[in-house]
Amino acid sequence: MADEFDGAQKPESGGATDPFAAQIAMAASGAAAQEEAREYLKRQSIVAEKQSRLLDLQIENMRDVDKYEISHLRWRRLNDQLRGAMQLMLVAIGALIVVAIAAALWSASQANGIVVDEFSVPSQFAQNGIGGDVVAGDMTNKLHAIGNIANGNSLDTSAQVRNDRNSITVEIPDTGVSLAEAWRYLRLWLGHERHMSGSLRLAGGNRIALTVALDGAPAIVLEGPLADLDKLEQQAAERVFAAVDPINDVLYLEVSGRTDDAMAQAARAPQQVAAPIYRAVAYSLWAFETRRLTGNLALARQRIALAIATDPKVAPAHIEIVREASVLGHDEEELQAARSLAHFRRQDQPLSMRGRGFDEIEYEAGSARDTETGDFQAAAGLVCGDLHPAAMALCALYAARSRDAARGRVLLVRAQAGGESDEAAIALARYYVDADIGAWLAAVADARQYLSVEKTQPRQSAKLSDLEARTRTLPLLAVATAETGDMAGAKALIAKAPPDCDACVRARGRIAAIAHDWTAAAHWFAVVSARSPDIPFADSDWGQMLLRKGDFDGAIAKFASANRKGAHFADPLEYWGEALIAKNRSDLALAKFAEANKYAPNWGRLHLKWGEALLWIGDKAGAAKQFAVAAHLDLTPSEKSELARVSHG
To answer: Which of 74, 89, 493, 587 is the most buried if burial means most Cβ atoms within 10 Å?
Structure first.
């Protein structure tokens, strides 16, 4: 059996021996064979152990190699990233250099002002402190002062002396080559700056001659005593400013009180500028000066037409239409011109009018749109945000026309305490405050004060002042006079007003309504309503006349028409509610009063009538609340009596 096992399991010569098989063989053999087998297994164990250690060393080595390779790869990747970042930085720096050069070239090409070079002066002047840099500095300061007076940033021309320290500079060339000198030559090469130079010399005796030369203009030579050097410099600066900025020169002359010179320069300015956009501004300014300084509105309108024909997108000509229509009392034309300005674009205006100048035109047009449709709260929102003292009188006017006489009085006190100098604005606001509470004798005095101030407007022709007095003041004075019972005086006053003035014709209608001349009143209101189809005031007045007459359905129709034209005008809504009460529809009146309350929340009469409507539908608690509100607001004498009667009845 042992022989059979040996024959079956004997390995081939030189082949590997299976340790498991050796153990089986050792167990089946004798002691010598077992010892030999054990020795064999021992050797095999040692070999296996060495192989295991070798394998461990190989694995450890491979790990170290992997670590090295990974570290090396990471370092190569970092180097690649740094190299890429460096390349990107070089590209970025190159791009920045290109952009900087392009920006410098563009900036140099846009250089557009006056550069005052150092003047040439005799050595004896320089020894006495009147050097060439001193004279150049004097000229620079005087040009800046003129620009300040003219408010040089409000208008622009192709070669404007702007009111900043970068457009009028004294420039003394450096010696050698420097960055500043390179920039100077770059502006000279690419820009549009005009250099001004000159000299000061003795002219014999104690007289001097000042010569000023501006690029592209004839030299200016002025002579006078040495003591008059400052005057000569001022005259030269004014002539330079006129040559450089003919449009703003008009403003400088007018603000300086030289109205004849301003009018003459306004006539020359359109021919002194080349670009159509500036020529349109020049024509607009000519129209403005024509209206203010001559009062010839027909001639001013012709010059407005020239401006619009030159460039219809320039806003100043269109705001001139708004102003002229306001003076004439042509309400519909004023509203339509103001509405058209809402579509004008800032980028279509001259460069320096795209900021504050365009904002002012937008404000003026917006104010006209709001006041001509009865939205006095919106008009107040345009100007009354910060309650600057200069705006308080106007804010008081809007408060009063929103039926808030108490706030109007407070704002008037603040305006006067803050030094408000616009006496016309104060008188007009006070008129509406007094009219709102039925103080008609006081309103007459206010209107007469307003009339007196209107006739003495500074820097304005007497003809224009007279026209403004007849279109703006006489209607107010005539209505207040009629409310005091002086019908003859009221009719005599309104007879002096122009027949094409809408406020004047409405005043005729109101005077007739006070006299219960219903036919005449309806005629005058119909005239205005027909020629001003988008203005709510005539229909509102007409409705009040019909309400007083007892024609409630007719009154409601007129109030509805007025509300369509001026949705935020409180008056027709409130009186519409009163007409509904008269028709025993107090339930419907509540909605009208609530709507009117959005636009005139502090109107005493509104809350009085609202309380009455609530009382009629049986809501005594609601009525009491409205009566309590009315009791703390301004009321006319008759309204106070009515409140006492209904709240205690």
So the answer is: 493
Cα(205)–Cα(123) distance, integer angstroms: 17
How many helical (H) and strand (E) elements, i.e. helices and strands, does the chain have? 31, 5
Across 606-643, b (16+ Cβ under 10 Å) vs e yields bbbbbbbbbbeeebeebbeebbebbbebbbbeebbebb
pLDDT value for 56:
73
- Identify which of 235, 245, 241, 238 has the alpha carbon closest to the alpha carbon of residue 210: 235
pLDDT score for 30: 63
Please say whether the beta carbons of 425 and 394 come within 8 A: yes
Q: Residue 325 carries which side chain, given as an amino acid letter?
A: A
Name the residue with higher pLDDT: 261 or 113.
261
| Residues 6+ away with beta carbon under 8 Å from 68 | none
Residues 6+ away with beta carbon under 8 Å from 150: 241, 245, 248, 249, 251, 252, 255
Task: Quickly count: other Cβ atoms within 10 Å of residue 524's Cβ.
Answer: 25
Closest alpha carbon to 612 in 599, 630, 595: 630
Lowest mean pLDDT, pick from 61-75, 461-475, 501-515, 633-647? 61-75
As a whole number of angstroms, the distance between CA 539 and CA 544 comes to 9
- Spatial separation of the C-alpha atoms in residues 244 and 195, rounded to whole Å: 11
Q: CB burial class (10 A; 0-12, 13-18, 19+) of residue 310?
A: buried
**337-362 pLDDT tens trace:** 999 999 999 999 998 788 888 999 99
Residue 458 corresponds to which tokens in the numbers above? 């500074």
- What Å distances lie between residue 169 and 104, 108, 219, 649, CA to CA? 19, 15, 19, 81
Share of the chain above pLDDT 70, in %: 85
pTM for this model (two decimals): 0.76
Contact present, 473 and 450 (Cβ < 8 Å): yes
Q: Which of 550, 642, 645, 629 is nearest to 593 (CA)?
A: 629
Nearest partner of 265 among 286, 280, 281, 279, judged by Cα: 286
What b-and-e string marks burial along 279-294, b requiring 16 or more CB atoms within 10 Å of the CB?
bbbbbbbbbbbbbbbe
| DSSP SS3 for 115 | strand
215-236 b/e (C-beta count within 10 Å ≥ 16 → b): eeeeebebebeeebbeebbbbb
Write out pLDDT tens, residues 218-253: 888 999 998 888 999 999 999 988 888 899 899 899
